[in-house]
Design a protein that fits this description.
Layout lengths: L1 H24 L19 H20 L5
Helix pairs in contact: 1-2
Length: 69
């Protein structure tokens, strides 16, 4: 039972780390709209989701790395 609570705890820590990093790097935030010329200035929603999922995976690796021996 302890391993389940430990796993949940690392997931929570990774999620908090993701929130912090994303807010500091403005990842996932909406930027100003396009002027109508060229490419839009903000990435598509699917791209943002992909980046956030990749960032979450990296956060989990960072949180779990010290625990592995």
């Amino acid at each position: 039972m302890e391993s389940i609570s430990t796993a949940r705890r690392t997931e929570d820590i990774a999620l908090d780390l993701l929130k912090f990093v994303a807010s500091q790097a403005n990842v996932g935030s909406k930027s100003s709209g396009s002027t109508g010329f060229g490419l839009p200035s903000s990435p598509k929603g699917d791209d943002q989701v992909t980046h956030l999922l990749e960032l979450y995976a990296r956060c989990r690796e960072a949180v779990e790395a010290p625990a592995k021996k």
